[in-house]
Amino acid sequence: MKKFITSILILFSVIPSFDIFGQLRSPYIYQISYVIGNGEHIFWDDNNNPDSLTGFIVYRFSKFNPQNLPVYDSIGSAKAQISNNGYYDYKINQQPDTSVKFYAVEAYGKGNKSTNNIDNRPWIDAPNNVLLKGKFDSCINKIVLNWNRFYGWNNNSSKYYYCWFKTGNSPYIQIRFQGDKNVPNNDTTIALPPDKMTSNFQINPDSDYYLYVQATNLNGDGICNSNVIYIKKTNYHAPSYIIADGTSVPDNNHIVLNFTVDSISQMHKYYIKRSNNNYLFTNIDSIDTIGWHIKYIDNLSQTSKNASNTQYFYKLAALNNCKQQIVAESNVESNIVLRVYTDQNMNRISWTSYKKFLGNYHWDINRSVGTSALKFFARRPSTDTIIIDMLDTLSHLLIAEQVCYNILAVEDSSSLKAISNTGCVTVNSLIAMPKFFTPNGDGKNDVFMPELTFKPPIYELIIYDRWGTKVFETTTPLGNWNGKYSNGKAAPQGVYMYYLKISGADNKIIEQKGTVVLLLP
């Protein structure tokens, strides 16, 4: 009986490729690695009897079925032929996977097929590729790497991760972390060079880096290489200048700001800074924009003051792309506050100084009458902040009661300009009759006519001598008496009576009588 039992044990020991039910065993996946220059491969080991083995089927996880069980799709097959490194090898892709994929390999032959591996669940015990991602973070001046964990090797063995790098055509070097070569704490995110650690990795300006990560089973039966990533350490250029191009005030609640940024700048984060006194500036907004010409509209509708009564000062500050540090600021620019006051036959226009172009500038004052457009009226040096507009110069222009002004600060060496708010006043219909005139041909007070602040549609002026004889009459708009009779003879010195009939700016008829003294030398 003892001899019979021994024979049975010997029989099972010489057929190790089957379990007690005769089923083929599932292969052991040794690694899923990107082989530099030769694509992504899956390697496995197999202890089935080669005489019973025909080949292998390679699977990729597809989805979970309604019962929440994993479903794998076949992506290829391999013959039962061991590679030079002693393992079976199947090339998955020429290029590395661009996402995390889970794989399984099963053996088949002579009516048998293994099935254990295709029961493995992703993110639990199904082996996968390691997908490495990374970037150079200019905010901390480090290369930041992150990758997913490897879930193979029955997920019960200790795993460590190693980082490898090279620059240019040099060979790959394993990065040391405080003397050790593995990533501390088994992390899957690391910033290079590591803080407070002795390392053989340093970042040099404008250098090229190639990096990959290697997952290793400390039992010595598996490795997994990630894809290789390329990272260039780039110094982002800060602007060497930001120029304030001038402001404009389209209405009392809005101020338009304009800036030009150095074209070499690679910054795109900015602060808009505002002050009420040109000393203490506060950030009123942050913007993220790419471009050399930046336009911003400050909305004052939520403030108690507006652009017609308050001067504001602005700067544009460029931040590094981490929004941690100001790397450049513009010169100051401000809105121009213009005010207009009217006093009988003159308007007084005043304005605030402009802060400030980099070069010298002058003022251009524009004026509009009634519904006409603003037109150039006068030019003044930058030191002036007031101008008087005598309304008698408008007597041949006015057809309505409103006169408006704005002022432009214009840089002399460029086309940059800042435009004030528009100020308007209502000009009342004013009729002033001289008390005397001296028609002696000296060009001063030579004629008699009313002084008006408007151009009357209806106009009639009649002159009588002291006996009531009519000596002059005209209906020509703004016609005047030169002190002569209709026959061209000079009238004698003395007191004369006038009758004036006009229509005002409101088209109402106005009649006025009085006397005027004609004086001769």
What would you note in describing this structure?
It is a single chain. With 521 residues, this protein is mostly beta strands. It folds into five domains: 15-119, Sandwich (Immunoglobulin-like); 132-232, Sandwich (Immunoglobulin-like), CATH 2.60.40.10; 245-334, Immunoglobulins (Immunoglobulin-like); 338-426, Immunoglobulin-like (Sandwich); 431-518, Immunoglobulin-like (Sandwich), CATH 2.60.40. The chain is 2% helix and 45% strand. The protein contains one helix and 38 strands. It has one helix spanning 2-13; strands spanning 28-35, 39-45, 55-64, 70-79, 88-93, 103-109, 112-113, 132-137, 142-147, 159-166, 173-174, 189-192, 208-217, 223-225, 229-232, 242-251, 254-261, 269-275, 282-288, 293-299, 313-319, 326-329, 333-334, 338-343, 346-351, 361-369, 375-381, 386-390, 402-411, 417-419, 423-426, 431-432, 436-437, 451-452, 459-464, 470-474, 494-503, 509-518. Strands 10, 11, 13, 14 and 15 form a five-stranded antiparallel β-sheet that branches. Strands 18, 19, 21, 22 and 23 form a five-stranded antiparallel β-sheet that branches. β10 (159-166) and β11 form a beta hairpin. The longest helix has 12 residues, at 2-13. The chain is rod-shaped, with a radius of gyration of 47 Å. 28% of the residues are buried.
